[in-house]
Write a structure and sequence with these properties.
The complex is a heterodimer of chains A (641) and B (85).
Chain A lengths: L2 E7 L9 H10 L8 E6 L4 E6 L12 E2 L5 E9 L2 H10 L9 H12 L9 E9 L4 E6 L8 E4 L3 E5 L17 H10 L13 E2 L4 E6 L2 E6 L17 H18 L8 E3 L4 H11 L7 E7 L7 H11 L2 E7 L1 H15 L8 H13 L4 E3 L4 H5 L3 H13 L5 H10 L10 H9 L14 H8 L7 H8 L4 H6 L11 H18 L1 H9 L4 E3 L5 H8 L3 H4 L7 H7 L5 H4 L15 H6 L8 H7 L4 H11 L7 H20 L1
Parallel strand pairs in A: 13-14, 13-16, 14-15, 16-17
Antiparallel strand pairs in A: 1-3, 1-9, 2-3, 4-5, 5-6, 6-7, 7-11, 8-9, 8-10, 11-12
Chain B lengths: L2 H16 L22 H15 L10 H4 L2 H11 L3
Amino acid sequence: MCGIAGILPYKGFGESENPIFLLHTMAEAIKHRGPDAEGFYHDQHIGFAHRRLSIIDLAGGAQPMQTPDGDLCVTFNGEIFNFIELRAQLIAKGYEFVSQSDTEVILHLYREYGLGFPSHLNGQFAIGLWDKREKTLMLVRDRVGICPLYYFSNSEKFVFASEIKALVPVLPEKLEIDPQSLDAIFTGWTCVAPATIFKNIFQVNPGTLLIIKDHGITEKTYWNLEFPTQQDQYDLRSESVLVEELRERLLAATKLRLRSDVPVGAYLSGGLDSSVLVALMHTQTDARLRTFSLGFVDSALDETSFQNQVVNFLGTDHSRTEVSYAQLAQNLVNTVWHTESPILRTAPVPMGMLSNLAHQQGYRVVLTGEGADEVLGGYDIFKEAKVRQFWAKNPDSKWRALLLSRLYPYMDLPKGDAAVYLKRFFGVGLDNPGLLWHSHLPRWQTTNKAKMFFSENLNEQLRSRANYEAQITSVFPEQANDWHSFHKAQYLEIKTLMSGYLLSSQGDRMLAKNSVEGRFPFLDHTLIEFANRLPPKIKMKAMQEKNILRKMAQRYLPPEISQRHKQPYRSPNVSASQGSLFGSGLAEYLSEEQLNHAGLFDSKKVSLLIKKARGDKPLNTAESQALTGILTTQILHQQFC
Amino acid sequence: MNLDEVRQKLRHFILENYLFTDDQAALNDDDSFLEGGVLDSMGILELIDYLDEGFGIKVEGDELVPDNLDSINSLIKFISSKSPA
């Protein structure tokens, strides 16, 4: 990871402005993303900043980088994994290179293909590119949103940066929480791109190119998820052929992501996805691999025994860090500073501790299994959606409803008439199974409960804004109505939770805070395109999630791992750590004075929630999410507003 | 404990623990807990514990039906039926 920033003053920099000072201030705010070097470029019309984390072409590759004629300039965060192939293609076309870096490829690729250049990139990237002759700024973000890219514009200027905190020094006014985005987070865990939690601050949509020219901003989508709309668009080859093709594609994606001039390690959760990746990495090297994992004091969340099985089987050099409740509380404020978003669970905190472990051990690049559940259909929400679709065909059927209790054997259901309760929790939307977001209604219903703590003032502001479902509708393309329900669920999960939360609050931000870069082979776009053409029953066979990956994994892993049931990554909720929480100064953020100052939550209701949290019984899921969401919103408000 | 006291005690518990308010208007005695989203599965189990701790009422498996537990009035009726005459 690196950090980028830039300023485009529409009338050019004024005589009283000091571009280098402004750029330096912006870059300093994201120094953690790139501690190795800083670089600046400016002329009368544009200013670029870059903080570098050196991974490829350690000696060359300094940024911002210009073409020799000075017509093009780029500041770039991320990796172009296929830069070697692109470089060779461009050299064959007559382009001359002065460095070995992937950055230089971007400059020549733009010259060759113009605005179509992002389609040639395989990687994770946020790019700022200035065409001096055309006086045009272009911003490009990778296909699924691995690298962050934010911007602000008004009548005077356009500014962009890898993190919102780098925009703050050049904003005309203080940041304000956007009610609609807060409402979205308190429904689906993340705001709906291009919105952010702050008013007037936007993010570049994944898979999108922004063109800023003559005071106007044009958006061009260069890639989006596509799923079959008719039967003949499915990949209907035999399962064994598809398993082999998945293996080849995942291996190729992994090999591409091992391209680095510094050593590459891996996160190992003990689950199927990361274990498969480590096994594939193992086939590519004779050296012992370096792996890192989290452990929890709470045995219900801890996966250490599975991690040890893989470590022993593959013979990796392994480090583990154990997370205590006290550490969750101690690290929460700093975590929110980096997520730049309210969070409903504490899960990002341990991920920050894990990247710290890799950093302490001298690693700045790790591969992780992120994306496998979304791309290959691993989450319980997909199973749940499948059962609910089945149930919707006969809504009065009790035994169809009872399939859900088998899906969640750990769910504590009243035993008298379980079907009635199941209908209440999962029956939402049974009368309209064709809804684009049908799969996610039960999850939203649980999270929604946190909204009972919104202040009257906030509710008043929300009355005039589009509701969450209207926002979500805008995320789907028109043809989505013709997709299989399984694919609608996958699309929604990838476009919202994965991009906006897992790759951001739990991903990039927790890696970048400790100057570590994550790489995600399951999110290789060619692999996603292959997976999207697979029939749903190949991904989920009966109730077996990630069926095709499990079959592939049998070749590399012991059955205890390859056939292991999905255990979602979870960290202790706030109520479990309440002793530490209220003993570590965090309660101050929830004082009546602070709550009233921010004006977002009803202080009286919050005080009753705190009273309940201090009691001897654990908060339920919805209450715990509410408390974490309120607390982290208050922290964010104090830090940024 | 007379019925009014039972009612007040139940209302206080539901309002404070699930609706996080002391506003009496937030809940009518006939409001369905399930339809209103007042209780989820964990909340029902919590309510069962409360019936035991607050009223000495043990809820049997076959009594865990909405008819007994889904509103203040249904709870009062259920508690009355379980209490010695």
